[in-house]
Design a protein that fits this description.
Elements: E1 3-6, H1 10-22, E2 26-32, H2 39-43, E3 46-51, H3 62-72, E4 76-78, H4 88-96, E5 100-101, H5 106-112, H6 115-122, H7 140-150, E6 154-158, E7 167-170, H8 176-191, E8 196-200, E9 206-214, E10 220-232, E11 235-241, H9 248-264, E12 269-277, E13 283-289, H10 296-303, H11 307-315, E14 332-339, E15 341-342, E16 348-349, E17 356-358, E18 365-369, E19 384-392, H12 395-407, E20 410-412, H13 418-426, H14 428-432, H15 439-443, H16 446-472
Parallel strand pairs: 1-2, 1-4, 2-3, 4-5
Antiparallel strand pairs: 6-7, 6-8, 9-10, 9-12, 10-11, 11-14, 12-13, 14-19, 15-16, 17-20, 18-19
This protein binds ligand MV4.
Ligand MV4 is lined by residues 130, 155, 164, 199-202, 205, 207, 231, 234, 276, 286-287, 437.
């Protein structure tokens, strides 16, 4: 493998290229209009323009990306996350063109892309699953009987759904039929597939996922868990590894279950198996993501592995250089997604220019980003500006490192989720590890963020005022008085 095309943009394109460069492999970037001057384009050995800014005209155009690969003589394509990364048709086209797709087979992607196919695939592997039905509901009367048996509340899910889309909670038997009809018509209009199924509703779960890695020689290992419960509208904001609630026993149990899920579909490469965990630490298989995930750096910190390097090695037909027993957890890592969203305005998207953009640095601090000072964050894509990842000797050490790193991360011109990160790091439920997927709903409001800021800035303002008054009491000749006041005290 001498040259790899990265079918993506932003931080992940850059992150993938850095590993490729370190491995002595040439890189090809593709870019849309809005990304002409992006770091991922400048960093690559070659760059190919693929179209207008909307992703439907550029990063989602498999045909244009393949043409760019052919033209530049790339022998592999890394899809990153999002865009075409979980599209089995694209993976197939790539392989047909004699180019290596750095990821699982199209067949594995197809199975895991459908929740029902995934359930069907793993059913003989003794994987814990939420009580429910594992086939598309066609007969409402039959489904209602099953629901009455499982017990309410139940959840109706669209087989083709994802990211929480197409889910409906049904509180009681009397509401079943109406909710069912709504769920089906929603699924038809959103996914073009009206298949729905039902599950027992797990109240206030944690979202814990297991990173897996498989080579083409029948070796599959788990790289431990990531705790991803701090999310808003199914968008994760903070992730960490390891999870503070898993015992070593549970960790092994979940890891082995995740390996079986991967083996059930002949998985190859890096993948993630998602589980729900209830308050009694029972875990249930939810779905498998067949890509490298946004939050993979926390796993890299605690395992010492470069997951992109592992993906490349697997794609080059190499055997994994380690077995499960060689792997262990080192310290604790936390990631904050620094997004162009204003936590003071309920995470409203914030548009503008990165007038000031200066990064924290130091031991155990990593920033994965794809922008530089002076750039605009394009409105066409997702609002992620950077990922701030810290690594400490234990969880408390990682929390204090995260607080310091946030304080040293200076962004002006765009509102970001940085202050939200500080809020979470200071929150008692987070510090004690007693939280679930309702964390933000339960503990966060813009008012609380303002209050907390006041609580932290008032003592500092008092000290500054005291020093200023003392200074004023000295007889000095004032030549010039600055009127350059900032309009908002941060
Ligand atoms: C559930 C659930 C409770 N019970 N399934 C949301 C996204 C989709 N991938 C699965 N999701 C859920 N499935 C049962 N049977 C609660 C959620 C859920 C959730 C899961 C993971 C992370 C955040 C979540 C937020 C709300 C609901």
């Amino acid at each position: 493998m001498k040259k790899v095309l990265i079918a993506n943009r932003g931080e992940i394109a850059l992150r993938v290229m850095k590993t490729l460069k370190r491995m002595g492999i040439k890189t090809v970037a593709v870019y849309a209009e809005a990304d002409r001057k992006s770091p991922h384009v400048i960093y690559a050995d070659e760059a190919v323009f693929i179209g207008a800014s909307p992703s439907s005209e550029s990063y989602l155009r498999g045909d244009k990306i393949l043409e760019a690969a052919r033209k530049t003589g790339a022998d592999a394509i890394h899809p990153g996350y999002g865009f075409l990364s979980e599209n089995p048709d694209f993976a197939e086209e790539v392989e047909k063109a004699g180019i290596v797709f750095i990821g699982p087979t199209a067949a594995a992607m197809r199975i895991m892309g459908s929740k029902l196919a995934a359930k069907d695939c793993v059913k003989h592997y003794n994987i814990p699953m939420v009580p429910g039905i594992d086939h598309a509901i066609t007969d409402i009367a039959e489904a209602k009987k099953v629901a009455d048996n499982i017990g309410y509340p139940i959840l109706i899910k669209a087989s083709a759904g994802g990211g929480g889309k197409g889910m409906r909670v049904v509180e009681k038997s009397a509401d079943f039929e109406e909710q069912m009809n709504r769920a089906v018509s929603e699924a038809v209009s959103a996914f073009g597939d009206g298949s729905v199924f039902i599950e027992k509703f797990v109240d206030s779960p944690r979202h814990i996922e297991i990173q897996v890695l498989a080579d083409k020689h029948n070796n599959t290992v788990y790289l431990f868990e990531r705790e991803c419960s701090i999310q808003r509208r199914h968008q994760k904001v903070i992730e960490e590894a390891p999870s503070s609630i898993l015992t070593q026993e549970k960790r092994i149990e979940m890891g082995e279950a995740a390996v079986k899920v991967a083996q059930s579909c002949g998985y190859i490469g890096a993948g993630t198996v998602e589980f729900l965990m209830d308050s009694n630490l029972n875990f249930y298989f939810l779905e498998m993501n067949t890509r490298l995930q946004v939050e993979h750096p926390v796993t890299e910190f605690i395992t010492g592995l470069d997951l992109v390097e592992q993906q490349i090695r697997v794609a080059r037909d190499e055997k994994l250089a380690f077995s499960q027993n060689d792997l262990s957890i080192h310290g604790h890592a936390i990631e904050l997604r620094v997004c162009a969203e204003d936590p003071y305005e309920n995470f409203l998207p914030s548009i503008g220019t990165l007038d000031t953009y200066s990064l924290p640095n130091g031991d155990g601090i990593r920033v994965d980003d794809g922008f530089t000072q002076g750039m605009e964050i394009p409105i066409f894509y997702d609002p992620l500006i950077a990922k701030l990842i810290v690594h400490g000797k234990d969880r408390m050490d990682a929390i204090s490192k995260m607080k310091e790193a946030i304080a040293a991360f200076h962004i002006e011109g765009i509102a970001t989720t940085l202050p939200f990160g500080t809020f979470v790091m200071n929150n008692n439920a987070f510090i004690t590890g007693k939280f679930n997927t309702h964390f933000i709903q339960q503990y966060f409001t813009p008012e609380k963020l303002n209050e907390e800021n006041k609580a932290h800035s008032l003592p500092i303002a008092k000290i500054a005022l005291y020093a200023w008054l003392k200074e004023q009491s000295k007889p000095t000749i004032v030549k010039h008085t600055s009127t350059n006041w900032k309009s908002r005290l941060n």
